[in-house]
Amino acid sequence: MTARTVVHFEIPANDLPRLARFYEVCFGWTFTKVPAPGMEYWLIATGPQGRTLRGGMYPRMHEDDRPRNFVGVEDIDAAIRAFTGAGGTEVVGKREVPGQGWTFIGNDPEGNAIALFQPAGSNRPARRRARGRKPPRASARRARPRRRRASASRRSRA
């Protein structure tokens, strides 16, 4: 089995500005409020660009709403089958996050919330190139007029 890694986390909050300030002071995390249809959502950056685990914070939906980690998967349908087959239970079924990908939220056998995330476009088959051929250089992709080699008759006249 291929190891999967945490790619995102979410924290529910009763008072978003107060909790954001707490994490900013304690850990130096930064928060950005983003437009999300139908809900308030804040993105969290836990470190410098390219070296951060991204997270999100949203208004607590119910009393039992707890933080959760999202594990990155290539095929969410296969990952859901593996999750439930190993004893996990569904909390929120597979749903699309427009422009981002697909999620599924469940509980592990101990009742801990865990989510699966398949990024948009990750289930597409990879393009394959002919064996032994290198991809064209960026400059070679532009249409360039080819130089013609002089024919033997033209070379002999010179």
What does this structure look like?
It is a single chain. This protein has helices spanning 16-27, 76-85, 138-141, 152-157, and strands at residues 6-13, 30-36, 39-45, 54-59, 68-72, 89-97, 101-107, 113-119. It is α+β, with helices and mostly antiparallel strands. Among the domains are: 11-60, no CATH class; 68-123, 2,3-Dihydroxybiphenyl 1,2-Dioxygenase, domain 1, CATH 3.10.180.10. A hairpin with a 3-residue loop joins strand 6 (89-97) and strand 7 (101-107). The radius of gyration is 25 Å and the shape is globular. The relative contact order is 0.14. The model is unreliable at 124-146 (pLDDT under 50).
Task: List strands and helices in order, with pairings.
Layout: E1 6-13, H1 16-27, E2 30-36, E3 39-45, E4 54-59, E5 68-72, H2 76-85, E6 89-97, E7 101-107, E8 113-119, H3 138-141, H4 152-157
Parallel strand pairs: 1-4, 5-8
Antiparallel strand pairs: 1-5, 2-3, 3-4, 6-7, 7-8
* Tally of separate helices: 4
Beta-strand content bin? 35-45%
The amount of helix comes to: 10-25%
Give the full name of the CATH homologous superfamily of the domain at 68-123.
2,3-Dihydroxybiphenyl 1,2-Dioxygenase, domain 1
Low-confidence stretches: 124-146
Provide the succession of SSEs.
EHEEEEHEEEHH
Class by alpha and beta content: alpha+beta
Radius of gyration: 25 Å
Strand order of the largest sheet: 2-3-4-1-5-8-7-6
Q: What is the fold named in CATH at topology level of the domain at 68-123?
A: 2,3-Dihydroxybiphenyl 1,2-Dioxygenase, domain 1
Number of strands: 8
Q: Sheet with the most strands?
A: 8 strands, mixed
Structural shape? globular
Q: What does the average pLDDT come to?
A: 81
Name of the CATH class of the domain at 68-123: Alpha Beta
Calculate the terminal CA-CA distance, rounded to whole Å.
Answer: 69 Å
Looking at the overall shape, the CATH architecture of the domain at 68-123 is Roll
